[in-house]
Design goal:
Nucleotidyltransferase, domain 5; 4 domains; 4-stranded antiparallel sheet; 12 strands
Length: about 425
């Protein structure tokens, strides 16, 4: 006897149709009890009377879907995911299959295939309660900035850092730049490039990294790093986040880049910082990322401000002060600079001179905002060498007092004060 696995709904249909078969109810009553139309009941009754209980089952049950993924394509994709694309996720795999091989398949289909093949596991996240911070309402009001150190070239090149600038209102990537580290010069260069392209944002949201914030002996938060000083000169407010979750938009973007950008550069064999920056400028990676992940702001417009009145070359630099010596020279990092006598401004001894080290490592001097004429003294004056003469050796001569003391005799002074007394006998 053939067995069927039927659903609860199909078992209910058998009960109703048996009552109809015996003439106990009408087709209208059967349709009302089953919650279907009379036309559907007529069709089902004919199949039930002709085939029995098997006629109530769906004809496609147990058969593969006509829209199922082609087995050859699935095997090809699984092979890629086990070799070249071993760390690709379902979403990126679906995108790259269409871009490179013109295979159109949904990410959910790929995810299920990866689970069946044992190369993908569901991620479980531990949820923590946090207070939500509302986005800023317009592009350019707040830009989140962070550095992401990572093995971006997967051993093909040196470890480096990706400097990320993302808009808070739209999650739009404003600027990406690779650098050796999150140093002051690298951060200033990337910030300058971003501001030259978009303008000055209202504020920056950053962490307490050494290039952003002075963390030692700065309880009043009055000391500024060179980058913080440059932002103050540009009129940009700097807000410091107390946790990575506070600036979650840029932190999540870093995680996305460590997944997607690494694989994008692998496909075109990028293996150095110069090649990576060229890839970011010449490819459409940032545009594609923004189309996929950016959102619409609450208000239309752009809050970035103009930079016409600002000289970025004199702002994005390392700026320190030195005092003029009596010979009208100043010293900086073991280098001596001689101030010329012909200047546009009066200079006196002990005046404070502003030394600027620009991003191209050139040096300029100024006082009260006026540039100075100077030249570097290549060699330091050498002190004359004074030959040291060794004193002639004289043998040590033991004094008479030392001899008497060593032999146990009293000193000469004691004998003079206490002469021997003659004694008579008899």
């Amino acid at each position: 006897m053939e067995k069927f696995i039927m659903s609860r709904k199909e078992l209910e249909q058998i009960t109703v149709f048996e009552e109809y078969k015996k003439g106990e109810i009408t087709q209208g009553t059967a349709a009302y009890r089953l919650g279907v139309t009379i036309r559907w009941v007529r069709k089902k009754v004919k199949r039930y009377l002709a085939e029995g209980a098997a006629g109530l089952m769906h004809k496609s049950r147990g058969k593969p879907s006509e829209k199922c993924w082609d087995k050859a394509q699935e095997a090809f994709t699984i092979n890629l995911l086990k070799t070249e694309w071993h760390d690709f996720g379902p979403t990126l795999t679906a995108e790259k299959l269409f871009d490179i091989y013109r295979i159109k398949v949904s990410k959910e289909t790929i995810r299920k295939a990866m689970i069946r093949a044992g190369i993908h596991q569901e991620k479980t996240k531990r949820r923590k309660h946090r207070k939500r911070r509302q986005r800023y309402v317009m592009l350019g009001l707040m830009a989140q900035c962070d550095g992401s150190p990572h093995d971006w070239f997967e051993g093909r090149g040196e470890w480096c850092t990706l400097l990320v600038f993302i808009d808070d209102a739209t999650s739009k990537i404003l600027w990406l730049e690779f650098a050796k580290s999150e140093s002051t010069d690298s951060l200033m260069r990337a910030t300058k490039n971003y501001i030259q392209k978009y303008g000055r944002p209202k504020c920056f949201y950053v962490d307490h990294g050494g290039s952003f914030h002075v963390n030692l002996n700065n309880k009043e938060h009055t000391k500024l790093t060179q980058w913080g000083r440059a932002m103050a000169e540009l009129g940009i407010e700097v807000i410091y986040a107390n946790s990575p979750q506070a600036k979650g938009r840029v932190e999540r973007s870093n995680k996305t880049f460590q997944d997607r950008l690494v694989k994008e550069m692998r496909l075109v064999n990028v293996s150095s910082i110069e090649e990576a920056n060229r890839f970011l400028r010449e490819s459409d990676f940032i545009e594609r990322h923004n189309r996929k992940f950016a959102v619409e702001p609450a208000q239309k417009g752009d809050a970035h401000r103009a930079i016409i009145a600002y000289d970025l070359d004199t702002i994005f630099c390392t700026k320190e002060t030195r005092k003029v010596a009596n010979d009208f020279t100043i010293q900086y990092e073991k280098r001596i600079f001689q101030l010329h006598d012909q200047q546009q401004v009066l200079i006196r001894e002990k005046d404070e001179i502003v030394v600027r080290i620009h991003l191209n490592r050139s040096i300029t001097l100024s006082i009260r905002g006026i540039p100075l004429n100077f030249s570097e003294i290549e060699t330091r004056p050498e002190k004359p060498m004074v030959e040291k003469t060794c004193a002639s050796y004289k043998p040590h001569k033991t004094s008479e007092a030392a001899k008497r003391f060593g032999s146990g005799l009293p000193s000469m002074k004691w004998e003079i004060k206490h002469p021997p007394v003659e004694r008579r006998v008899g």
